[in-house]
Amino acid sequence: MLLLPTTTYRTEAFLAAASRLDVDVTVASERPSTLQHLNPAALVTLDFSDPQAAADQVVQFSEEFPIDAVVPVDSQVVVAAAAICAALGLRHNSVQSATAAQDKHLMRQLFAQADVASPGFTLCSLDEDRTARAERVEYPCVVKPLALAASQGVIRADDPAEFVAAVDRLEAILEYQDGKPPREFLVEQFVEGPEVALEGILTAGKLRVLALFDKPDQLDGPFFEETIYLAPSQLASDLQERIAGTAEQAATALGLSDGPIHAELRLSGDGPVVIEVNARSIGGLCSRLLRFGSGLSLEELIIMHAIDQEVELPDRQSQAAGVMMLPIPAKGRLEEVRGLDDAKEVVGIEELTITAHLGQQLVPLPEGSQYLGFLFARADSPEQVEQALREAQRRLEFRITAR
Question: Partner of 342 for a Cys bridge, out of 14, 242, 266, 395, CB 3.0 to 4.6 A?
């Protein structure tokens, strides 16, 4: 069973992976399909916001259509997946650990209790006196919502005035969220140093690193928009081992034990510092840069592991690869995209996908959480990959009108 929220970018990749593996799939989503009555074994509607109700429904569903494994595709369904697996008696992360991976404050608390290197933090409220709080904050700091993803609402502040402005801006962002977002938020110490991302799979708490990505752009704020991921990492092998060890320690602190993880870390002067650990694989379309063994996708590995955790997973192919998430430069309506053919002609560029559509109202960070699209490149070295990505981006032009 694939838990596929309707907002995910990743439906096509996981369904294609299941097809290549010749696996029978039930797709669970939060919105009913008009075709569900024609193929009741393949489509089911679940309320992901109520994990226990979803689990009870799947137990009843499985009496007629047995389920051997459950794969959550995005962050918003990891708790529901844990509850479903618990109800079905399948090995997976506990509901408590999946919840901790979703709640940034609880995550920080568990990291602190387990002595995991992570930023200092304070839980604050939108209802308290911001000016008074600003005088007690250690700068530079990062204002961060408790649950949003893709760096939405994450803002750096270097002094009291910037802090008050950041909190005002975060409050406005939260007002537009569905449901009732918490009135609390985190203030974290800003960690100097380059950032890396780790992709891995846990088996009974043991981490298998699938890829370590370097991020060549300095993510120093005031907003923290992702741009380029490069693999393989060019960091020294001993530092890579420390990063992997720190990520495994962080996953253990949260109670995560089985399935994919995506971790973000900063490399401070004292070593790796965990920014967060997610109980799911890399987001967006970024997984397309990863190939394993004879050409398996990341999604194929995840499904194989979910079905049989004793399966031997192949290594990542050694060729250098990278992805650029194309940032939204300004708020407004997307009127035209120019230079697509020129960008694709850059040596090393393998794929260019524009996910924004003409006429779409674009919202950049920190209010927004999406990208214009994704560029993928392969070459003999990470340096050549980076050069190809930057040259292709330079050839693209997005005409955005402020209306």
Answer: 395
